[in-house]
Amino acid sequence: MQDEENKPAHKGLKKGLYLIPTSFTAANIAMGFLAVLSSVRGFQISGLNPAQAATYFDYAAIAIVLAMVFDTLDGRLARMTRTATEIGVQLDSLADVLTFGIAPTVLVYCWGIGSTFGEKSAPHGFGVFVLFMYLMCGAFRLARFNLQATRPRVLLEGTTKVDKKNFVGLPIPLAAGLVAAIVHFAPLPLISYGEDYARFYNILLMVLLGVLGLLMVSTIRYTSFKTAGTGKGNIYLILFIAAIGMLVWIYSQYVLLILASLYVSHGIVWYLFGLLNPRKKAKQIESNESAV
N or C, which end of the chain is more exposed by having fewer CB within 10 Å? Predict the structure, then answer.
């Protein structure tokens, strides 16, 4: 009885809170797993029933987008409930490799490259190489993110600080989000548009994947939105999120593609603007060197 009286209040509840972010990470993994299965199933029937294959490819793209939501929520919930753990960080990174690394590459292969080029052709081999390099760049991006989280960079003033406002390099969920948004916009297998158009679209797709891979391993800054909702304008943020959510629900094919494209391009625009500004050019170079 004495041990029960000395037991801290809500100790069991505190332990239960640790399961909340982990459950969202598990949902992230589940979405990646379902995306891979849907992509493979769509590839199996792409030559026999392109319309049904498009449905499976669309399911895979939607699963990746939902995984982005779960990936965002697990981190925020861990910070809100103060239940962030080292194993949770590592589990989240492993989940991201599956959902935003392997799942998009499988989707792109099944939707475009695999159904357009023969296995022994040179374009097929080059496409597989591009997909592998995209995956490697994403894995490197995650490894660098984990390292920077444990080793804060040294600022020019000589003090260490974690940059919560920006990511170094394009985050892999947003790179996968752009790929998923493109497939969601046009889920029909590329071979359905004819052999010539399919080859042209696949070349553009390979170029895009190469650019996304380079952006992930670059030192270009991307807004993290981690500080969003911490100020006095929470009500406006809620209204903005509600408006975006409604637009996504009604016009998902267009809105998701626009949002993903804007996010991927805004880092490049800010980087070029910083280089063109004489006052910020030196700081931009020094900031990039400290981020490596």
Answer: N
Distance CA 224, CA 69 (A): 14
Structure tokens at 46: 């792409």
Per-residue pLDDT of the chain (292 residues; tens, 9 = 90+): 445 455 444 455 555 556 677 788 889 999 999 999 999 999 999 888 999 999 999 999 999 999 998 888 876 766 666 666 667 677 888 889 999 999 999 999 999 999 888 888 999 999 999 999 999 999 999 888 877 766 655 444 444 455 567 788 899 999 999 999 999 999 999 999 988 999 999 999 999 999 999 999 998 888 877 655 555 556 776 777 788 888 888 998 999 999 999 999 988 888 888 777 766 555 555 555 555 5
| Domain residue ranges of the chain, discontinuous segments joined by + | 2-291
- Token readout for 237 is 């943020």
User: What is d(CA 131, CA 135) in angstroms, rounded to the nearest whole number?
Assistant: 6
